[in-house]
Amino acid sequence: MNGRPVSDEGRSTACGPKNGRPAADAPTDCTIVDAEGGMLFPSFCDSHTHLVYAGSREQEFLDKIRGLSYEQIARRGGGILNSADRLHAASEEELYEAAMERIREIARKGTGAVEIKSGYGLRTEDELKMLRVIRRIRRTVPLEVRATFLGAHAVARDYLGRQEAYVDLVCDEMLPAVAREGLADFVDVFCDRGFFTVDQTRRILRRGRALGLAAKIHANELDVSGGVQLGVVEGALSVDHLERSGEEEIEALRGSRTIPTLLPGAAFFLGLDYPPARAMLRAGLAVALASDYNPGSSPSGDMRMVMTLAATQLRMTPAEALCAATLNGAAAMGLGRDFGSIAVGKVANFFLTAPMPSPEFFTYAYTTPLIRRTFLRGAEWPAGE
Ligand code: NIG
Ligand code: FE
């Protein structure tokens, strides 16, 4: 981990050994950065976030403490619909500024590639507004950004009791509009009890695929939804959450290219059972970890905290957690070739830590500020900090 990558035009051109000298084949005019005894880690690839949102929802946090469940809050018009009301009232500029604060925070905390979902719009114009904000972020920051259309995050208020009509709106109006502007890479559906059924999810994913969008699914967070099996059959890039899964879901995933993405920050914050990560790893699945950064179930994009939750709650070793939070996260965004590890030819995204007794210390001492300097595309970011 103390190797010395040298980067050119944002990609690593050489990776040297742990001897304190630049790699033998490094360009001679390169800037030398002294790690000062710290370690070098590849930047996190956070493949599941909802970090464009307006306002916050700490009132619901209090409701939860008093005993209401996530679903009870949603049924009372809280939850995603609450965020949709706030997003409707916010301007594109306000949304962008608020999201950029979060982007700067996660970049300082080691994230170098991030997926961001829409899904707090729930009306065509508002979904487009969110996706345009994501596009603007993508154009202004050195982080690699992927955009996911999640119009089927909840049934919009105006459509309550008319779920099929809302699915029609997603398929016939929203998806074509999103594709026309080239605003999304992926399409996602919240396939779970109280949200969207397997049949509705299939319909939306297929429509998305016809328009060039690869599939992702929120599955098995609240119940055994059938979403995992559907994701595998439909060739989804990832199926995410999976708190409620067992042998059948693992069997379905075995041998498929669909990546199980676990979000222990959401299970932690909502007090849900944790997904069976060890059984998944035993089955040889390439488990990814992501933050699920959102105002309801995971108001944090701290991937280091996610790694520590993976270690303490999912019983993943720090090395397994790091691989899941970097290389496998990159794969869950279709970025495995260019991101997720420090290697010649890959984009030079990494961070330097303070001196540590071992790599495991990073996951163990989980509130100690250990990240000293971050580099994105070979350049320090924020510059000079
Ligand atoms: O991934 N599960 C669905 N969506 C989000 C929560 C969104 C919210 O509550 O605002 C999640 O946990
Ligand atoms: Fe989510």
How would you describe this structure to a colleague?
The chain is of the alpha/beta class and 385 residues long. Helix content is 37%, strand content 17%. It is built from 15 helices and 14 strands. The protein has helices at residues 58-65, 70-75, 80-89, 92-108, 124-140, 163-180, 198-210, 227-233, 247-253, 264-270, 277-282, 303-313, 318-325, 327-331, 361-364; strands at residues 4-8, 11-16, 40-42, 44-46, 111-117, 144-152, 186-191, 214-219, 238-241, 259-262, 288-289, 350-353, 371-376, 379-380. It has an eight-stranded parallel beta sheet with strand order 4-5-6-7-8-9-10-11. A four-stranded antiparallel beta sheet has the order 3-12-13-14, with no helix packed on it. Strands 1-2 form a two-stranded antiparallel sheet. Strand 8, helix 8 (227-233) and strand 9 form a beta-alpha-beta unit. The longest helix is centred in the middle third of the chain and has 18 residues, at 163-180. The protein is globular and about 65 Å long. The chain starts with a strand and ends in a 5-residue tail after the last strand. The relative contact order is 0.15. The model has no long low-confidence stretch (mean pLDDT 94). Bound molecules: N-(iminomethyl)-L-glutamic acid and fe (iii) ion (FE). N-(iminomethyl)-L-glutamic acid is lined by residues 50, 79-80, 83, 190, 218, 221, 266, 292, 294-297.
